[in-house]
Design a protein that fits this description.
The chain has about 280 residues and is of the alpha/beta class. The chain has nine helices and 14 strands. α1 packs parallel to α9.
Amino acid sequence: MQDIQLIAFDLDGTAINSGMVLTHRTLGAVQEALSRGVKIVPVTGRQLGNIPDDILDMPGIEYVISDNGAQICTLPDRQRIFSKPFEKKQAQQLLLECRNYHSMLYVSIGPEGMIDCPGKDMENSGIVEPDEPSDEYWGNRSVDAVRYIERPGIEMYKLVITFPDDEAMQEVFHIFEDRNDLVATSSMSNNIELIPTGVSKEEGLRFVAGMLQVAMQNVMAVGDHHNDIGMITAAGWGVAMGNALDAVKAVADSVTLSNDEDGLAVAIERILQEKALAP
C-alpha cells in the first residue's frame, strides 16, 4: 500500500452514523492520525454551517471542503479560499425549472442552507423560520430563493432536490446527468445535488492536496455514495464504506465496515498500523 500522508473522508454515511453521530472511536482515530502527522481533510456535500464543530474545531485539521467542492475553507479560522457559485441568472432559471418537480428544494448560500419557499414573505430581514421546523429541514430557514439571490453578495453554490423515493429521483436524474451547464450528483438515495460545472469532491481534494504538498498517490479517500466516486478513484487508496453503493465498492481498493460499525475508524486504524510497521 502507498505511503498515506493524507486521509480525506465524507461525512454523512461515512464519518457520521445513521443516528447522525460522530462516535468517540471515529473522532479518536482522526485525532490519532493527526498526532502521527497524517493530514486530515473532511470532504462533504454539507455547507460549512452544517458541519459538526467536533470536526471544524479539531486541532490539526487545516482545510475543509464543503458543497461537494464548491467551497473550500481554512481551519480553524473558517476563511474561504476557493469558491465557485452558479451565475445568478443560471441559478434563478434552475430554481424555476426545478420547482416544476414539486419536491423540496434546498439551496446552499454561503455557509448555510435554506429551503426554497416560493412567495415567502421577505419583508424586514427577508428570511423567516419555517412554520413547523422538522428534521427534514435540519432547522434551516425558508426563503423565496429566486428573489433572495438577487441581492448583492448572495450566491448559490448548490441546489438539492429531495424526492419521496429513489424511483422518482432516478427519473429526474436522467434529465440532468447529460447536461453540460451543470454537474448532477447524489449523496442520498432520494436526492439530486446540482453544482456548477468543474466542481466536484475530486477537484476540491486535488486543490487541497496541492496546498498541502501531498501527491494524490499518497491520499486515502473514504466515502459511500455517488458524489464520492471521483475522489475515491483519484486517490492512491480508495475505500468504500460497508454501507456504500455497489458502484462505489466497484471502484474502491478496499471495503471497510459500515458507518454504524465505525468503518471509517477501522480504515484509519488499519492505515496507522501499517505505517507503524513500515520499515
